[in-house]
Specification:
Blueprint: H1 3-23, H2 28-55, H3 67-103, E1 107-111, E2 117-120, H4 123-128, H5 140-143, H6 147-155, E3 162-164, E4 174-181, E5 187-194, H7 196-232, H8 238-269, E6 277-279, H9 281-296, E7 301-306, E8 310-314, H10 316-332, E9 339-347, E10 350-357, H11 379-384, H12 391-401, E11 405-411, E12 415-421, E13 427-429
Parallel strand pairs: 7-9
Antiparallel strand pairs: 1-2, 1-5, 3-4, 4-5, 6-8, 8-13, 9-10, 10-12, 11-12
Helix pairs in contact: 1-2, 7-8, 8-12, 9-10, 10-12
Bound molecules: adenosine-5'-diphosphate.
Length: 430
Amino acid sequence: MRPSQVEGSCLVACAGLVLLLQAFGFSWAWALALGMGACLLRHLFQLVRLIRLLRRRHYLSPPFPWGLWGELYRTIARYQQGNRKRRKRQLRFQRRFREAAHSIPDALVVLDKRQRIEWANPAARELLNIHWPEDEGRRFTDCFDHPQLKAFLDTGEFNRPLDLLPNHNRALMLSLRVNPFGERKRQRLIVARDRTAVYHLNRIRRDFIANASHELRTPLTVLTGFLETLSDSPQTPAAHQRPLQLMSNQAERMRAIVEDLLTLSRLEMEDRSEDLVRVPVPEAIRAIAQEAEVLSRGRHALHWELDERLGLLANPGEIRSAFSNLIFNAVIHTPPGTRIQIRWHREEGAPVFTVADNGEGIPPEHIPRLTERFYRVDKARSRASGGTGLGLAIVNHILQRHDARLLIASELGQGSVFQCRFPPEAAVQL
Ligand code: ADP
């Protein structure tokens, strides 16, 4: 029935009542007053009943009263049914979400806008010592107290995870990620992952490489010493000179590899570079370029363009090592006659070091892998030129420790560009 029809039938019932009362001898005025009074009473009764049912959160169900009130009851019942379905769906989703969050081995903690704990999964007990719901409403940093964490949260830069040993269990190694979300990104989702096994494996690998390289150093020094004595000795037959020379070259190559491996191990010890000082970069580049000219023996045309007032807040030894690796690579891996352009300048406030050459270039499939250890485009040629295959891995590590990035672009037959981009804060005026 449409509402207008319902309204009509109500009026008819009211008029019927007035006529009936009149038939019983009531005057028109009395019949009308009594009829309208009865209608009003019915409306009042239905209104009070409905309010009471809704207050008690009753789900309305048939039989419904007739007329307009019946229509109102039916409409409310339809809404209630829709709501009930939505709530059920929401509860199902909530249960599934909770089950999924409980099955995750990573600790998950949701913080509100004031960094107070709103929710945490069971893994947060073991990994972060956060007990939910007991710790609900407490500040995250009060429950998980760590000096590194406080500093990390204060910076507000969460693009990198924070690795730390928690105070409540020093045998654990955690990798903590902070993900801002919600209104104006003021809420936080903390994800802590247990990295203990990977951390130990990495340490074993690092220690093994460092120890093996260190152990190889002494025998190599002894070998090179004897080889030198033998080749310098007048008693050594002339026929032995060539094999002795080859042995010396190989021993020198091994020494270079051992030194590079030790450098890499040292760089891997810490994520960030210590001892940052003001480095007069133009002066350092000029010195490296002069060494590169000696290495090139006039076969390359070296040019440099340096911003003389631009220095860098960095570790001087590491910066020298990174820049010399790139400049020497341009000399070693390009044919005679190549033009090598070295540039040190600012780009949008950020200090940038560039080495560009117009050599043979590097095929595109090799570029993403160049910073891997021992990765060479042409193994035989690189070995012949005395390369260890570790140079770009060292450069990459050094730049990471300075929050800088290594960009490599190359085109076959056109040449290559190696660029180190430092953060603007690292720039200093000389
Ligand atoms: P290597 O000790 O062999 O120089 P690197 O890690 O420094 O090791 O370089 C990796 C490889 O990248 C090199 O073997 C070479 O094939 C390639 N390469 C590096 N610089 C250049 C360049 N300027 N032009 C062409 N190839 C290059």
